[in-house]
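step: validate -> pass
step: tokenize input -> pass
step: predict -> running
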Amino acid sequence: MNKSKFYLFPLLLLILVGCNSEITQEDLIGGYWIGTAGYKDGEPKGQPYYSPFAEGLKFKDGGTVYIEDYDENLEFWLDKRENKAVIYFSGEQDYRSYYIDKINENEIGLRGTGSREKESCYLERER
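step: predict -> pass
step: emit ->
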């Protein structure tokens, strides 16, 4: 009986480590992200309401993201605000920030900050 505890403990640790919802740039790179719904209360709901990501985006190495709607590359970086992860997008004529939630390795949720707080998007990674 005592030996079973020793086997279950490492398994529990693996499960807890695998549930990490902290997002990194490496989590975003690879594939093409497409908005499939709005995002509210941690769930996909309704239609995507966001701009300029309607046609999708592709994150690249070095903090660069290709925005299909603009047909250009913008800079992006991740940070924390009020204990929440935030993604920033910056280009010559645009600067935006969104709270970002990592749902799993192929799904993220964006919620606008400041004047864009009504914008939201649930994105899925296409391979």
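step: describe -> The two ends are 46 Å apart (CA to CA).
step: cleanup -> pass
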